[in-house]
């Protein structure tokens, strides 16, 4: 049983890019599903 909303979001699995399959280092709960590289922006790493 989930004890709180914060615990729920902390335990979400990494989000993967829908195009290349690499993990997205953004918030897991955001709506975007494509990494910066695949949309043509410079990667933040």
UniProtKB/TrEMBL annotation:
Pfam family, any one: YhfH
Superkingdom classification of source: Bacteria
UniProt protein name: YhfH family protein
Organism classification: Bacteria, Bacillati, Bacillota, Bacilli, Bacillales
